[in-house]
Design a protein that fits this description.
By secondary structure, the protein is an alpha/beta fold. It has 2 domains: 125 residues, Periplasmic binding protein-like II (D-Maltodextrin-Binding Protein, domain 2, 3-Layer(aba) Sandwich); 94 residues, Periplasmic binding protein-like II (D-Maltodextrin-Binding Protein, domain 2). The protein is 28% helix and 25% strand. It contains 8 helices and 9 strands. Strands 1, 2, 3, 4, 5, 6, 7, 8 and 9 form a 9-stranded mixed β-sheet that branches. β1, α2 and β2 form a beta-alpha-beta unit. The longest helix is centred in the N-terminal third of the chain and has 12 residues. It is globular. The N and C termini lie far apart (66 Å). The N terminus is likely disordered.
């Protein structure tokens, strides 16, 4: 009958709308934000999962896309957001807008509490391509410093110092705090200089083509602010997100 046909149509009608996909770019392997992209380990992945669990209008999908490849849109889906970056790290010229602050950080110098290799006195391990105050925020100047040994990431910096290959290393306070939380015995071997190289914060960057606006994303962050978000950050040794405007 006609009535049965109508009822059948309603049986197969969708009960809701599909979530709008939001592509989230992760620009480097940098613990604790991105620890292992193969197993999706790190705060960035957990935070994206947290956002998905707390609302269904958008589905946030995180993917590691190194900065140099971000413009290769023929091979990579262009991201809508960049996770745990800073608006001053080249995103303004791409039309990006920075969200409320998620972490406040700084780069710190550290050494072994008991140094055993006097031959490396004055040497420093740092990450190739990073911008440090002691090198005038210039990666080219950094590469020319004879006393600096450059490696690919901050975990490699830690290993050089641990093995006595350099006297000092420089790493983010976020990384050091994560080591303190996840490997306390390892952390105890380091002596950390409280005088920072420089300070900065991390945000999500909302790019021009993003389906979610900066105002809507910030409103979502404020709505989710609370003990559950704080616990997520604390798991990685980080303070509760201040969620303050930047700068």
């Amino acid at each position: 009958s006609v009535l049965a046909l109508i009822l059948c149509v309603f049986c197969f009608a969708p009960t809701g709308y599909a979530s709008q996909r939001i592509n989230v770019g992760l620009t480097s392997v940098q613990p604790p934000f991105v620890i292992n992209p193969d197993t999706e380990q790190g705060l960035a992945y957990d935070f994206v999962e947290f956002l998905n669990k707390k609302q269904d209008k958008y589905h946030f999908s995180a993917r590691l896309i190194p900065v140099k490849r971000l413009l290769a849109t023929d091979k990579y889906i262009p991201p809508d957001l960049i996770a745990f970056s800073n608006i001053d790290w080249g995103w303004t010229k791409r039309g990006g807008l920075g969200s409320l602050t998620l972490t406040e950080g700084r780069d710190l110098f550290f050494s072994l509490t008991e140094s055993t290799n006097p031959e490396n006195k004055g040497s420093l391990a740092a990450v190739r391509g990073f911008h440090y105050a002691f090198a005038s925020f210039s990666s080219k100047s950094l590469a020319k410093m004879a006393h600096v040994r450059l490696v690919t990431d901050e975990l490699a910096v830690l290993r050089l110092v641990e093995h006595g290959r350099t006297e000092q290393g420089i790493a983010s306070e976020s990384l050091l705090n994560w080591i303190a939380a996840s490997e306390p015995e390892r952390y105890k071997q380091f002596s950390i200089n409280p005088k920072e190289d420089h300070s900065y914060n991390r945000q999500f960057i909302v790019l021009p083509e993003s389906p979610i606006s900066i105002d809507e994303f910030n409103a979502l962050l404020l709505k989710l602010k609370g003990p559950e978000m704080d616990q997520l950050f604390a798991h990685y040794g980080l303070q509760s997100p201040p969620l303050t405007p930047y700068p």
